[in-house]
Amino acid sequence: MRHTISVLVENEFGVLSRVTQLFSARGYNIESLTVAETLDSSISRITLVTRGDDRVVEQIEKQLNKLIPVIRVVDFGGSPHVEREMVLIKVRADAQTRPEVMNIVNIFRGKVIDAGKETFIIEITGDEGKIRAILELFEPLGIKEIVRTGKVALHRGTRVFGPLAQEGDGKAA
Amino acid sequence: MASAESNPKAPRTLRAATASETAPGPHPMAGKEMSNADIILQVLADEGVDTVFGYSGGAILPTYDAIFRFNESHAKEEEVRLIVPATEQGAGFMAAGYARSSGRVGVFIVTSGPGATNAVTPIRDCQADSTPVVLITGQVPRVAMGTDAFQEAPVFNIMAGCAKQIYLVTDETKVEQTIRSAFEIARSGRPGPVVVDIPRDVQLAQQPFVGEGLLPMRGYEERQAALHSTKMSDAQAQDFYELLGSSSRPLLYVGGGVINAEAAVELTAFARHFKIPVVTTLLGIGAFDTTDPLSLRMLGMHGTAFANYAVEDCDFLIAVGSRFDDRVAGKVKEFAPNAKIAHLDVDASEIGKVKFVDWSHIADAKRGLAQLLKAGKEMGFKRDFEAWQKHVDGLRRGHPMNWNRESSYIQAEYVLAQLNEITKGEAFVSTGVGQHQMWAAQYIDFKRPRTWLTSGSMGTMGFGLPAAIGAQLANPDALVIDVDGDGSIRMNLGELETLTTYDIPVKVLLLNNQGDGMVRQWQDLFYANRYSGSDKTLHKKDFVKAVEADGFQFARRVTAADDVRRQLEEFVRFSGPAFLEVMVDPHEHVYPMIGPGAGYREMITGDFIPSRGDANTKAETPEGYF
Q1: Nearest beta carbon to residue B218 from set A25, A63, A71
Q2: Domain range spanning residue B355?
Q3: Confidence of residue A124 (pLDDT cuts 50, 70, 90)
Q4: Are the beta carbons of B308 and B299 closer than 8 angstroms?
Q5: Is the CB of A173 less than 8 angstroms away from the CB of B165?
Q6: Contact residues, chain A, for B157 at CB < 8 Å
Q7: What is the SS3 string spanning B150-165?
Q8: Which residue in A has a C-alpha nearest to residue B194's C-alpha?
Q9: Rounded mean pLDDT, B459-472
Q10: By CB count within 10 A, which of A100, B135, B309, B551 is most buried?
């Protein structure tokens, strides 16, 4: 089963490599990975998507919690949350296919961010289902290249995922 | 953080706050401008380090110079003694032996490139056996990093996969905090090795000394604070005693976590209060006096028959600071098949990792056992396990350890049993890895924690000699014996000279069976006696001559069984470093044996240990896991 996991880490040298080594040393795969600073620039947030049964994901969480620079870990599975990913799609857009490309872009509320004689680059943001759908529609028109940011996720509602002190829920991760 | 709450002025630390900890004034050296190399030495001194192990080289020279100058400017008793091994691996195992035998953090300091890569094996060994050490490695100067400079190696990348934590200090203002943090991390929680890689130019940079402060590690601090403050809930204690109350054959299964947590006293109190017999893992040896009537010694692949039968028979297994390693659990499904399981461990990731458990609590063994016993006493828990004790005593009497007493060869078991009569559970004993290690675990008694030093999880041959050196330096007045094999001792043979160089009175007992006995045993059992790579009968080394050349005043070889006892006594009594080689049976196997991946029911007890007869099967080709 696919799991989206967020990890808050000390924004310091080598943390990302420790996290990825943890996966490679156990033969676990990372399907996507994003990293950037949070509001507090001393903390980075890693969001990764991995696959495994409950036991494997429990071990991943526990092992992540053993890394010294890891502040907190959350598996979004099971709790209400939103997930988004951005994709840039270079699609064939010549005189013939251009109207159809534009149609699809509009339906999915995407953006054309580069237009050439032969190709457009489309920016699209959405959850897994939406991205899969648009890719399916572009497929027959001729996708030249895509690049994906990897997923990010937030809990719905007031729940905040931060260091314990900020969150103030008094519970250990 | 627990300590900060109870005493706002106390220095920031990851340890549980102690009542005696008082707020110190500013560090006497605070504000003084000095090189980072000198800062490193000052932090080591502040941490109470009296001995460092290591080998010099270009990229670490500034720090070695700082050691020299530190010792020149300090009184003898304040010195940071430097012990130089034959190789960096030796330094690492000396630091490990120092740490394991004393409970203090072991320190070793090596140069970049090959110095650092030679240190990888002890770092991984320390991680696998939860040993607190700090390794400082020199790195090429910052401008040269990544250029394949002379003696450059990607230490961060290599060590990150092996150590509890690794720092590459590229910011010259962070050296002091980093070294101090390394000590805190090494000894807190589940202990382990921390590596600090410092480029040469960073060592030379001048900085004002602060005298306090750690790197930010908010998550780790929170987790440590939680470990120190969480109490076992009444409901949880109730659940435990319900399990104990509904059992009639409880067994404590104890690992190295009890030793790391200094919880031998709590364990002993717990076991004796309820009269629950105790089996230990290889690393748990010493956590419970092996001469205690409740001790069943070691369980597992080469555990005693009575320990393993007790595991088979028990109906409630209480795991404390142990982790169901494959050498213990064998075929996991069939491990302790009739038992409910409780698991107390400091490391949450060990709960449920291998085996489903019915009850668990995350705490260090000291705290956890004390809380559990207190709760049991308060609720007035009483249950009579006398029938089970009688059963267990019967197992011990009916299936005692034994060896071939008819052979014309000297038996290693006999040598160790004789040694045990002399040391009586009081000596520090280190080992290499293999048959001699298992026999030492089976036949030597240990009354106190930290006196048994062996490479368990990694199984690193060559561990014994340098570990004994570290243990002797941490315990200068103790009797420290390295029980070694001819294969293992060759791996760090250079350290024999270290003994005479520093006049370290370690006793080296070499059980020479002319080969890698444990490998041969597996080849006998699973590879039709094809001794690929394990036979050393053609090896020419005369160990006695070799150690004489190293300056040993006591260097003897024993080839007759009736000479063993007398020679052992003289060997142990000798005042300086001593070497005794005993030529032992090259064909003997270690028994009992639970084959790899086999269940306890399939334990082979060999020709000399009575089997229960319900499962004395012949070994078969191991399936799956080696």
Answers
A1: A71
A2: 231-397
A3: very high
A4: yes
A5: no
A6: 17
A7: CCCCCHHHHHHCCCCE
A8: A68
A9: 98
A10: B135
Contact residues on chain B for A15, CB-CB shorter than 8 A: none
Tens of pLDDT, residues A56-102: 999 999 999 999 999 999 999 889 999 999 999 999 999 999 999 99
Put simply, whether A10 touches B (Cβ < 8 Å) is yes
Residue B482 belongs to some domain of the structure: yes
Is the pLDDT at B261 greater than 70, yes or no? yes
* Six token digits for residue B373: 């016993």
Reported confidence tier of residue B527, pLDDT bands at 50, 70, 90: very high
Instruction: Name the residue among B186, B129, B189 with its Cα closest to residue B467.
Output: B129
Decide if A17 and B157 are in contact by the 8 Å CB cutoff: yes
Domain ranges of chain A: 2-79, 82-152
In chain B, which residue's Cα lies nearest the Cα of A166?
Answer: B218
The H or E element that residue A83 is part of is: strand A81-92
B592: in domain: no
Q: A14 to chain B: which residues are within 8 Å by CB?
A: 156, 160, 166, 168
Q: Does A65 sit within 8 Å of B349, measured CB to CB? A: yes
Tell me what the mean pLDDT of segment B333-337 comes to. 93
Query: For residues A47 and A33, is the Cβ–Cβ distance under 8 A?
Result: yes
Say if B608 falls within a structural domain.
no
Count A/B contacts: CB-CB distance under 8 Å.
66
Whether residue B7 is predicted with pLDDT greater than 80 in this model: the reply is no
pLDDT (mean) for B394-416: 97
A68 contacts in B (CB within 8 Å)?
164-165, 185, 217, 219-220
- What is the chain A residue with the closest CA to B159? A18
Task: Identify the burial level of A58 via C-beta atoms within 10 angstroms of its C-beta, where 0-12 means exposed, 13-18 middle and 19 or more buried.
Answer: middle
Put simply, whether A25 touches B (Cβ < 8 Å) is yes
* Neighboring chain A residues of B348 at a CB cutoff of 8 Å: 62, 65
pLDDT in tens, A14-30: 999 999 999 998 888 99
State whether residue B3 sits within 8 Å of chain A by CB.
no
Confidence class for position B597, pLDDT limits 50, 70, 90: confident
C-alpha–C-alpha distance, residues B432 and B467, integer Å: 9
Query: Could you tell me if B429 and B334 lie in one domain?
Result: no
Closest residue of A to B354, CA-based?
A55
Query: With the CA atoms of B170, B172, B176 and B181 taken in that order, what torsion angle do they form, in degrees rounded to the nearest 10?
Result: -20
Domain count, chain B: 3
Bridging pattern class, strands B428-431 and B480-485: parallel
Q: CA-CA distance, A56 to A173, in Å (whole number)?
A: 18
Name the residue in chain A with its Cα closest to that of B168.
A13
Task: Identify whether residues B563 and B425 lie together within a single domain.
Answer: yes
> How large is the ipTM?
0.89
- Cα dihedral value B610, B613, B618, B622, nearest 10: -100
pLDDT for residue B623 is more than 60: no
Of the given ranges (A75-89, A157-171, B327-341, B456-470), which has the lowest mean pLDDT? A157-171
pLDDT in the model for residue A165 = 58
Q: Distance (Å) from the C-alpha of residue A168 to the closest C-alpha of chain B?
A: 13
**Domain spanning A2-79: CATH 3.40.50.300:** no
Enter the pTM of the model: 0.94
